Amino acid sequence: VQPTAREEELLLEAFRSGWWTSGPFVGRLEEALRAQSGVGHAVAMSSCTAALEAALVVAGIGPGDEVVTPALTFSATSAAVLRAGGVPVWVDVDARSGNIGVDAVRAALTDRTRAILSVDMGGLPVAYGALREVSGEHGLAFVSDAAHSLGATDAGRAVEGLADAACLSFYATKNVAAGEGGALVTNNDTWAERAARWRLHGLSQGAEARYRSGAVHYDVTELGSKANLSDLHAAVALAQLESNAERLESRRRIARTYLRELAGVDGLGLPEDAPGHAWHLFVIHVPPAERDAVVGRLIAEGVRPSCHFRPVHEFTFWREQGLQRFPLPRSEEWGRTAVSLPLFSSMTDKDVSHVLERLVEAVSPAGVG
Ligand SMILES: Cc1ncc(COP(=O)(O)O)c(C=O)c1O
User: Fold this and answer.
1) Partners of 169 in beta bridges
2) Which residue has the least CA distance to atom 7 on ligand 1?
3) Contact yes or no for 116/137 (Cβ under 8 A)
4) 38, containing H or E segment
5) Is the distance from CB of 67 to CB of 135 less than 8 angstroms?
6) pLDDT tens-digit series, residues 259-310
7) Fewer CB within 10 Å: C terminus or N terminus of the chain?
């Protein structure tokens, strides 16, 4: 993928400014995130992983606190709970959407539950309204892992503002990419202020604030991390954010072509569409006995699929924690059947046709159709 002129311009401006670490571009990115989402605060971080941990720390998650979260996600979601000192309580997902539902969440609540940590799988918003109701009824924090869903809307409203805090990723493959990076977005003044300190060693004032105020000294007010975003990454993320709507339109168009063209192929499970879907991923499902063979055939034909995700509880580290409390059959089935098709905004019609043709061939000899 070639960088755009705007990406090169802003990156060069950040590079030439000499700041390199967190400086004016971090502020500009945070301002742009606030403006786009309509949410009060954006705190840029070095990754979504860091933003998730920060969100749970500032929400007060501590030893023994239970956080209800999907098993079907990237390991980072559950790892943030553990690192904050909490206990992930995995719930199963809806078989079609891959998102947690309100019934599964309700069934997992105990008197130790302190938070819900949802994931917008592939860019499809969770049932925000229903989950907000549960969190409100039970006094829980509601944190959204929105690593996939920057640009997604639910009933016309940006997902970043629909939970108590949303955590974004600017990882290389994400909708708004900067190589690495993330942000915590929240309307909670105290959370934002604490997260801004947490990302930089718990310092009362970071380098930029000291430079601007002429201050030399700072205090350390709490145990923090080192999770600030560099200005170089912020510059690229800002340029990408400016053009996110355009790229989102391309991804939507490609996803709808996939949906239309694959509707007639027997035996394939297709993802759920929704008006506000951010289409970070396009995950289809093939019979488990054929999945790896289909993936192998696609790779041999020059199409690069992947698998999002095998559920967290199946990995060695997580198995060894002995945390699983509920049966998770739909997450496990998803992990055995998922194939993510290439989906990025610069794909041409020819690229899309190539994927479709190779996919139809790849599933045919398997007798999937
Ligand atoms: C659902 C989910 N959450 C969190 C992350 C972590 O994002 P980052 O790489 O920015 O830490 C990812 C990354 O792929 C993800 O897919």
Assistant:
1) 182
2) 48
3) no
4) none
5) no
6) 999 998 988 999 999 999 999 999 999 999 999 999 999 999 999 999 999 9
7) N
Ligand 1 lined by 74 (C-beta under 6 Å): yes
Q: Does the Cβ of 185 fall within 6 Å of ligand 1?
A: no
Where in the sequence numbering do the catalytic residues fall? 174
Q: Is the distance from the beta carbon of residue 227 to the nearest atom of ligand 1 less than 6 Å?
A: no
DSSP string, 342-355: P--TT--HHHHHHH
Asked if residues 198 and 224 have their Cβ atoms less than 8 Å apart, the reply is yes
> pLDDT tens across 174-196, in order?
999 999 999 999 999 999 999 99
Closest C-alpha to 282, from 368, 347, 185, 362: 347
Q: Whose CA is nearest to atom 8 of ligand 1?
A: 48
Tokens (6 digits) for 295: 């993936």
Q: What is the dihedral of CA 113, 135, 132, 66, to 10 degrees?
A: -10
Mutate to test the pocket of ligand 1, among 169, 176, 180, 184 (most ligand atoms within 8 A of CB): 169
Q: What phi and psi, each to the nearest 5 degrees, are found at residue 250?
A: -65, -45
- State in Å, rounded, how far the first CA of the chain is from the last one: 34
Closest CA relative to residue 194, chosen from 157, 223, 172, 174: 223
**Ligand 1 atom nearest to CA at 49:** 11
Q: Is the pLDDT of residue 369 over 70?
A: no
Quote the tokens at residue 363: 């599933």
Q: Name all contacts of 259-263 with Cβ < 8 Å and 24+ positions apart.
A: 261/356, 262/356, 262/359
Beta bridge partners of 269: 285
Angle, alpha carbons 307-313-315 (nearest 5°): 65
Q: Please work out whether the CB of residue 48 comes within 6 Å of at least one atom of ligand 1.
A: yes
For 273, 295, 297, 301, 356, the CA distances from 351, given in Å and listed in that order, are: 21, 17, 17, 13, 9
Using the mean position of ligand 1's atoms as its centre, give its distance from the Cα of residue 275 in Å.
Answer: 23
| Residue 134 amino acid letter | V
Report pLDDT digits (tens) over 195-231.
999 999 999 988 889 989 999 999 999 999 999 999 9
Using DSSP's 3-state secondary structure scheme, residue 245 falls into: helix
